[in-house]
């Protein structure tokens, strides 16, 4: 699944999460921290991955989750979320449109009782 990470969505997330660190919102602050431009919040990427997966699998519930970031995801970049389910575990890889590996992780899922 592809998702474009916009300035607007990161600004909304910063307000909602109360994480208004300038590396997420300001080009100059991001550059001072060693980044070419603002970076997305890691927790936003984790939450987005869960939301995208559950939107395609509404009869499942995530019971545990872990993710490791290899690189920052720059605001204004397209993120690609790849999910592979193996029994009750889902393996996740997040890459950019240019193939850079941003993060990898997994989560445990169970079927909701009806």
From TrEMBL:
Gene Ontology BP terms:
fatty acid biosynthetic process
Query: Can you give the residue ranges of the MaoC-like domain?
Result: 3-98
**Which SUPFAM superfamilies does the UniProt entry name for this protein?**
Thioesterase/thiol ester dehydrase-isomerase
One GO MF term attached to the UniProt entry? (3R)-hydroxyacyl-[acyl-carrier-protein] dehydratase activity
Report which superkingdom the organism of origin falls in. Answer: Bacteria
Concerning PANTHER family, the annotation shows: HYDROXYACYL-THIOESTER DEHYDRATASE TYPE 2, MITOCHONDRIAL, HYDROXYACYL-THIOESTER DEHYDRATASE TYPE 2, MITOCHONDRIAL-RELATED
Name the chain's protein: MaoC-like domain-containing protein
Species in which this protein is naturally found: Psychrobacillus lasiicapitis
* Taxonomic path: Bacteria, Bacillati, Bacillota, Bacilli, Bacillales
């Amino acid at each position: 699944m592809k998702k474009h990470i916009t300035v607007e969505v990161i600004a909304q997330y910063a307000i909602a999460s109360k994480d208004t660190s300038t590396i997420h919102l300001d080009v100059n602050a991001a550059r001072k921290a060693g980044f070419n431009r603002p970076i997305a919040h890691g927790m936003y990427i984790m939450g987005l991955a869960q939301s995208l997966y559950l939107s395609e699998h509404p009869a499942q519930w995530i019971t545990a989750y872990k993710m490791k970031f290899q690189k920052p995801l720059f605001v204004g970049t397209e993120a690609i979320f790849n999910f592979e389910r193996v029994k009750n575990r889902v393996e996740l890889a997040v890459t950019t449109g240019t193939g850079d590996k941003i993060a990898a992780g997994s989560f445990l899922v169970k079927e909701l009782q009806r």
